[in-house]
Amino acid sequence: MMIRYGFLSTHPPTRCGLATFNAALAAHLGEGGVVRIAANGDDPTPVPGVVHTWTTTTPAGWRDSAEVLSTFDVAVVQHEYGIYPGRDGSEVLSVLRRLTVPSLVVLHTVLTYPTESQKSLLEEIVAAADAVVTITKAARDRLLVGYAVDAAKVSVIPHGTSDYAGPPSSRGAQPHLLTWGLLGPGKGIEWALRGLARLRDLEPPPVYTVAGRTHPKVIEHHGEAYRASLHQLGAALGIAHNVRYESSYLDDAALGELVRSADIIVLPYDSTEQVTSGVLVEAVAARIPVVATAFPHAVELLTDGPGLLVPHKNPTALATAIRRILTKPALAATLRQRNGHAEPALRWPAVAQQYHDVAARLVAAHHRPVAVAGK
Questions:
Q1: Strand 176-180 relative to strand 154-156: parallel, antiparallel, unpaired?
Q2: Which tens digits make up the pLDDT trace of 153-166?
Q3: Could you tell me which of 317, 304, 202, 313 has the C-alpha nearest to residue 263?
Q4: CATH architecture of 176-343
Q5: In this model, does residue 375 exceed pLDDT 50?
Q6: What is the CATH number of domain 5-160+347-367?
Q7: Contact at 8 Å (CB) between 29 and 290?
Q8: Are 227 and 214 in contact (CB under 8 A)?
Q9: Labelling 163: which of 208, 221, 257, 345 has CA 20 to 30 A away?
Q10: How many CB atoms lie within 10 A of CB 163?
């Protein structure tokens, strides 16, 4: 079935995980257009595929956005608190209620302890949507247990991945640790630095690359204070010479080469709520051993999988896990072989097909003749 998709989301040139996710999904679903959510000051550069821009400072911008989305067969709405106008982003609900076509809402955050406003809003979003997708089973379980929602509407479709797997790219003599993604408080890099300081006795000691620009919202409110604090901490710990900061934006080819050069992907995130991590999925699919704090998505993918879990904010545990992988080749080989989660089902074409299957059911139901009593 040919379906024309309308997408509502942040989108490139905005650089955030949600924009990257939406761009990949839109590219693999094919025919359609994007209604881009843009904060005041976002790069206004026109992007192919964007048919309308909803600037968050535009009064009642939801109305025009809903009208544009209703020209497609299905509206795919990315939901994250804080990207839409209104309290907790409540104006997305106005869009959903005004649509004249079926809607599929992708939930990127499901909080265990939401405020009353956040809980009520998410329940109303699910009620207004025709279908809802969570990216992990943990998010679905949390949604069904903690919120009053219709379970029949909810499907689990994994986060898609690029194809970064392949032979290792060039590596130096030192073991290479890597963290990538937008930088900001909560990323936990300070714990990784403290862990790295506990590995100086290794011969040779590992080098740690932190790749990614500072998150635009962090820049807006705090400038580069977090990045500066990391530089200061590295110097104080005596490991600055073993840490590389790559702050330029990397395209897929450059990022793939960087990922394949890593011996271990380190995800020292502070959040205990994170049910979706695109970086984690990409790391697993690339078959690189992962050391991650026990946030929900990591617990789901790494338990008996290709990585080790450690407690939050615990540099000693981080260092111990990294040391085990670097000094025990058999363990590293075992972790690389635990690639059950990295099967083709995680690649974007397969993930997009799952979205298409849900959308096709919605379109079919939308066009099904309504039975008239007595006929």
A1: unpaired
A2: 999 999 998 877 66
A3: 202
A4: 3-Layer(aba) Sandwich (3.40)
A5: no
A6: 3.40.50.2000
A7: no
A8: yes
A9: 208
A10: 14
